[in-house]
Amino acid sequence: MKQALRIIAAAVLLGLIAAAILTVHGDAPKAGMIQIPNGAQPLSGFLATPDKPGQYPALVVVHEWWGLTDWVKGETQKLAEQGYVALAVDLYRGKVTNDPEEAHELMRGLPDDRAVSDLKAAFDYLNTRKDVERGHIGSIGWCMGGGYSLQLAIHEPRLAACVVNYGALPTDATELQQITAPVLGNFGALDRGITPDDVHAFEKTMTGLGKRVDVKVYDGAGHAFENSTNATGYRPEAAADAWARSVAFLNKSLK
Question: How far is the C-alpha of 20 from the C-alpha of 170, rounded, in Å?
């Protein structure tokens, strides 16, 4: 009898522990790698969705020149926690690096037209999902991905919002004229690749075309200041402000 009681007590305790775990993690996003329809071209991505069923706005997430890293996956999950179906596209087809020289080569080896095609395929995929609100799909990217986030805005008129974090900025009015989505940009004053002059030239051209644009240049911050794995360049306060700006902008544009 005592043995039976001990077994029952242990089962009850395990049940309570399991319930506690579910309570703690009940609002965590569901996340994992998926295959994205893209014709004959193989394409995958990291998808994170809100835990509760329903329809949500969505985001195409674009990684840095390092590839689809754990940091990017973490940011994608954070966006899902904010109430978005977030899909980080693997533009490098599985290749990831922390070596700047290799990252440079990977970026140089990525054809712009293929990258844009991949991002449009991700947009189309999100647009078919039952848990996504059609007409409420945006994009966000960092570094190389910030530039491609803007390229998606140029090539996809259905995009409803675009966030560019220290990404390349075209100033050709013919290109920028095609953008219909509002654009938010976060940049570093010490960035030697995307300089404050580049940012202001972009802003001037966009404003002159009557486009909706909001850019901020952070003093004391260089390139990749939002990435917490950037040992020398990470700026926590600027990163927190850029994240808050991005979430507020996306909520206003997509919800």
Answer: 51
